Amino acid sequence: MADVLKPPVNMTVALETRALPAITRWERVEGIPRAHDLARALRAEVRDPLWMLARQWQMGGFIGDDAGSPVFAKLHLKTTQLTTYTPRESPEQAFDDSVPLESRVEQRPVAFTAGTQPLSLDLRLVMGRQWLKLLAQAVLPFEPGFRAVFAVETPNPVSPNAAAVCAHPEAWQHQAAFAGRAMDGYRWYQWLVANPSPRNFSTLPAPLVITAADAGTVDTLGNRFIAWFDQLIDQPLKPEENAWDPSRLEYRFQCSAPLGDGRKEFAAEEYYLGDLDWYALDVAPVARVPAQRPEVQSEIIQSFIPTSIEFAGMANPRWWTFEDRRVNFGAIKPDTTDIAKLLMLEFGLVYSNDWCIVPVPLLAGTVTDVAGLAVTNVFGERLWIEPAGQMPEQVWQRWSMFTQHQIAPAESRKPSTSLLMLPTVPKVQQGEPLEKVIIVRDEMANMVWGIEDTIPMPHGVGRSGHGAAAETLRFFERLLGGVPAAPLLVNDAKVRYEVMNTVPENWIPFIPVHVPGDNRQIQLQRASLPRRIENQVGPGDKIKPRTSLLREGLDRLPQEAYFVHEEEVPRSGVQVTQSFQRTRWTDGRVVVWFGARKRVGRGEGSSGLQFDRLIPVPKKS
Questions:
Q1: Per-residue pLDDT, 2
Q2: What is the DSSP track for 78-111?
Q3: Total domain count for the chain?
């Protein structure tokens, strides 16, 4: 009976340990103000300075060194301005800061002709309207004569030379709509440039007859017309003003600024991305030439009160300061290779109060060197600070931001502490590509192809090169009257020998050739393929490119070969586009130019070009 009344083991343990349920009570300690005004209570005042010192000792605040904050500083700068500009290997020119540097470097000539075919009909019409407007303002009765003598030409649909217009319905329609009705202003512009003032207008054909009484007025209007067009679109009026290097598909230029008894040289050897800034230029070896315009060199001594750099939500470096929690540093998870995030964390958490703002207004086109900085801290100490990495033993400290790479050999390099402020714009509007060329490697054919993906149409818009090539081929087929297929042989063979097949007309071949004077190094030379229509050579014989990017040298007399450096076409290929660029300069003037940009391609390609083939013969029906 006693065994039955014995309590269970777990109850015995509970009684022995007295593991009874506990009652938890929470209490909150808070200040209770004795007045209705809470302003003083919200201050969180601490009246024991000894407690603050003990807390500072507990957190290691007394073991820091160099903890003096700057309270006053004086900056010494030496400035100079860019005075020369040199595109490629052309003669030096005066640096012009009245226009953005992008428009001067990137400007390319607008193609008004391709061989014998006129292009840019839209610009020709704009120029014609502008000239007729000048005549109307001067009340001169020569509008009918100019419309007749400098009329838009009517294309001939049965001529092989009119293929660029008549092969494409929309271009033909535009040309025919204005032919004989509107004035071709570019032809008049060419005549004015070829005949400088004072001009002899008696050589103009009938019905345009300009009397001697009106010759002076027309001559003055002609000069105004030339000046208007030269300002409408920035173009290299002379070949030595063109910074585009067609053999490397990029821009090359140099600029310099006087410095002491010499000059400081900056060189851009590979500029092609379309965002011109200080990082596009390298520091070239100093040129020991007589300094030009020494008046542009000056010194700036500026006193200021240092202000710490801050960003919204940055962690405060001192204790007992409230933060707004707009940046969650705990949510930032940078990788070991994410340098940008690591630098931001290092700055925001460790060295935040070591950086100060020094506002110094500088003019565009200025090269500035920091001679030194005199800083006074809260302890009254005055320190003279020079740019880091000045001594030979401090080579490892020569990394810095906003400084250029040096072209000179490593053993002869001197630290560059210059800040280059180029006269550029922050935003450039880019139009639709008028030309687009994709240069790819074709390992099967052992060739390089320049694929004209977008070509300029005669009426001034870009068109798919593949569609234009197909329309051009059909145009020449119509000229030949529809060539029938090759007849079958008497022996009725099942296969036929073909010397070479065809590729689309917008594929321009580049063949490898030796560099002159070198039997090992090669370069790429533009070549041509025959236009073959059903085993016959069509009109025009050889296919020529239609973009100005690949027509380099074809429109000159005599025609010149076009070469591209072999290393400029990697296995990934390159894409080069040309389009109109537009921006606004500091004086409010709109600046327009026609510029090129280069991008990485999408890999290798295959043209399908084959030689010496046996193809099956279609069976007789």
A1: 41
A2: EEEE--EEEETTSPPEE--TTS-HHHHHH-----
A3: 3
Beta strands in 346-485 (DSSP E): 356-357, 366-377, 382-385, 418-421, 429-430, 435-442, 447-456, 462-464
Residues 324 and 440 in one domain: no
Instruction: Report CA-CA distances (Å) from 421 to 83, 218, 263, 508.
Output: 13, 44, 17, 41
For position 15, what pLDDT does the model report? 47
Side-chain half-sphere exposure of 16, counting CA atoms within 13 A: 7
Vertex 435: Cα angle to 432 and 437 (nearest 5): 125
> Do 440 and 565 share a structural domain?
yes
Is residue 303 classed exposed, middle or buried when 0-12, 13-18 and 19+ CB atoms within 10 A define those classes? exposed
Whether the per-residue pLDDT at 1 is higher than 50: the answer is: no
DSSP string, 197-255: SSP-GGGSPTT----HHHHHHHHHHHHHHHHHHHHHSB--SSGGG--EETTTTEEEEEE
Q: Facing residues of 584 across strands?
A: 590
The mean pLDDT value for 538-553 works out to 84
> Which tens digits make up the pLDDT trace of 378-434?
888 899 988 776 666 556 666 667 778 877 666 566 667 788 999 999 999 999 999
- 387 lies in some domain: yes
- Among the candidates 404, 421, 438, a domain finishes at 421
| Overall pTM > 0.85 | no
Write out the residue range of the structural domain in which residue 313 sits. Answer: 281-421
- The amino acid at residue 466 is H
Q: Which two tokens stand for residue 306?
A: 């240092």
Same domain, 410 and 500: no
Is residue 306 a contact partner of residue 353, using CB atoms and an 8 Å limit?
Answer: no
Same domain? 391 vs 531: no
In a domain, 361, yes or no: yes
**Per-state percent for the chain, helix, strand, coil, to nearest 5:** 25, 25, 45
E-strand ranges in 515-605 read: 522-526, 530-533, 536-542, 563-565, 574-584, 590-600
- Do 535 and 396 sit in the same domain of this protein? no
Residue 265: in which H helix or E strand, if any?
A: strand 262-271
Does residue 438 fall inside a structural domain? yes
**Distance between CA atoms of residues 79 and 302, nearest Å:** 13
Alpha helices in 44-168, H assignment, sequence order? 49-58, 101-106, 121-137, 143-149, 163-166
CA separation for the pair 480, 477 (Å, rounded): 5
**Distance, CA of 56 to CA of 46 (rounded, Å):** 14
- Enter the tokens of residue 299: 């010194």
Question: Is 33 domain-assigned?
Answer: no
Cα separations in angstroms, 156 against 167, 457, 468, 474, 578: 11, 17, 18, 16, 29
Asked whether the predicted pLDDT for residue 253 surpasses 60, the reply is yes
Q: How many CA atoms lie within 13 A of 527 on its CB side?
A: 13
Whether 513 contacts 525, CB under 8 Å: yes
Same domain, 187 and 322: no
Do 358 and 291 fall into the same domain?
A: yes
Name the residue type at position 340. Answer: A
Whether 377 and 449 map to the same domain: the answer is: no
